[in-house]
Amino acid sequence: MPRGFFITFEGGEGAGKSTQIHLLADRLRREGRDVLTTREPGGSPGAEAIRHVLLSGAAEPFGATLEAILFAAARSDHVEQVIRPAVESGAIVLCDRFLDSSRVYQGVTGGLASDFMAALERVTVNGLIPDLTVILDIDPEEGLRRASERRGKATADRFEKENLEIHRRRREAFLNIAAREPQRCVVIDASRSADAVSENVTEIVLRVIFDRAGLSEPTEAGSV
Ligand code: TYD
């Protein structure tokens, strides 16, 4: 059984991560591949319980350090209960947000020390680094407009409601990560239509999968 593939999607609010994951999963499944889609914070029963505490803002009064530890606890459970077993069984796992969101939201704009964040990350992911990270890049003004359209009358979550300047710093921080780790990260212009972005994402993901021995043979349902 070949090891599967772990692909994460990152970016600011309203960048279209969930739409892109959905389109890519459909495409890969049509080719007969085993695909698991998941998200953070959440993705396992334990982590989904923590998600509620984080996104409702209930943990905010306790400060950025405690929030970072809660994101890490949720991630650790998600990694060990869901992601690692799926990747080890040969699946392609598509995850909406992962370690880069913590680096950006808690580390950069949360102002936490980088050695603390690095130590927390090491313990949390326990060696499970994404094979590929797709960073969907969009002007935060446009992203927030899209997010508010999607939300309708529901209220913005703990992180969405922060000011534009913070969202701009997050965009820069994602781009900096991509510049520092070009072998893992690819930046995609997410201001285009969902179909155009999806074409771009699919082409990159198929190329990366194709390059990996063991997952590269054409399946019965079609070839890559
Ligand atoms: P979610 O409703 O999943 O929205 P989005 O479509 O933006 O992913 O909200 C997740 C929020 O949690 C989002 O504002 C980013 C934030 N977050 C962190 O601050 N740190 C993290 O490690 C993760 C995974 C998410």
State the helicity in percent bands.
40-55%
CATH architecture: 3-Layer(aba) Sandwich
> Can you summarize the main beta sheet?
5 strands, parallel
* N-end to C-end Cα span: 20 Å
CATH level-3 fold name:
Rossmann fold
The overall pLDDT, averaged over residues, is 93
Total number of beta strands: 5
Any overview of this molecule?
It contains 8 helices and 5 strands. The chain has 224 residues and is α/β, with parallel strands linked by helices. The protein has a single domain, classed as P-loop containing nucleotide triphosphate hydrolases (Rossmann fold). Strands 2-3-1-4-5 form a 5-stranded parallel beta sheet, sandwiched between helices. Helix 4 packs antiparallel against helix 5. It is globular, with a radius of gyration of 17 Å. The two termini are 20 Å apart. Thymidine-5'-diphosphate binds next to helix 4.
